[in-house]
Specification:
The protein is mainly α and about 250 residues long. Helices cover about 65% and strands about 0% of the residues. About 5% of the residues have low confidence.
Length: about 250
């Protein structure tokens, strides 16, 4: 057999040249994700200082999500509940998950799309939470589940263009998600509505996002993202204004 007739063996280096190494340029310190975590920590410090964790009534007064209050027109709670937490362990576990998934989303989609994804996932989690539970409910886990669902959509849709060296991260995310949802069926303090709603919202939004890790964003897409960013910012502002108006009554 002539040397030129032999089949070429495909090596990992050859595949790498045709695909984008997702982890290569990922920043180990994601600034936007850290900014969100700082906000969550600051809000939690406020909860502790104003004794919002002392009772269900106190956490509701601080802005927690309840079906009764939302039906009464306090829609701003759909936003504020995302930034509140029920205890230190709750905050720490969410902050760790947010750091990992936020670093991934910030790298894959850029800050503007990441912000839209976070806000919409959080709101979707709050909406399903209201439908499934009377409350009170707090926590950023709905938004975090949205980030995770977006990661799944990203790697599934672009699996032929993205190279992920350490596939164990996918296993870790799946195990964490399953554990959280299963725990929700056995613990009354875990809000499965927020988890499932956030995941659905994140998956739907991710299908409209442009992965900047694969290439620059087209001008038309950039305009749409800019409008979405302002809308998401407006929703957060609405939540803050509603919360302040409640406090100043």
């Amino acid at each position: 057999m002539d040397e030129t007739d032999r089949p070429i063996r495909i090596t990992p280096d050859m595949l790498l040249s045709r695909r984008v190494d997702f982890e290569r340029r990922m920043r180990r310190f994601p600034p936007f994700t850290m900014a969100i975590i700082v906000v969550l920590v600051a809000v939690f410090v406020g909860e502790v200082l104003f004794e919002a964790l002392e009772s269900a009534e106190a956490i509701v007064a601080a802005g927690a999500l309840t079906r009764e209050d939302v039906e009464a027109g306090q829609y701003w709670r759909l936003v504020t509940a995302v930034f509140l937490h029920g205890g230190l362990e709750h905050l720490v576990s969410n902050a760790i998950a947010l750091f990992i998934l936020g670093m991934l989303a910030e790298h894959a989609f850029g800050r503007a799309q990441y912000f839209v994804l976070f806000v919409v996932s959080g709101l979707a989690g709050s909406l399903l939470s209201v439908l499934m539970n009377p409350g009170p409910s707090v926590g950023a886990s709905g938004a975090i589940f949205g980030l995770q669902a977006a990661a799944v959509v990203l790697f599934r849709r672009h699996r032929h263009r993205l190279l992920v060296r350490d596939r164990r991260i996918g296993v870790v995310m799946l195990v964490w998600a399953l554990y959280s949802i299963l725990s929700g069926f056995t613990s009354p303090v875990i809000d499965n509505g927020a988890h499932i709603g956030g995941a659905i919202g994140g998956a739907l939004v991710a299908r409209r996002l442009h992965p900047v890790v694969l290439g620059p964003m087209p001008a038309e897409t950039a305009e749409r993202v800019n409008r979405s960013w302002w809308l998401a910012l407006g929703l957060v502002a609405y939540g803050v204004v509603g919360w302040l108006a409640r406090l100043l009554r």
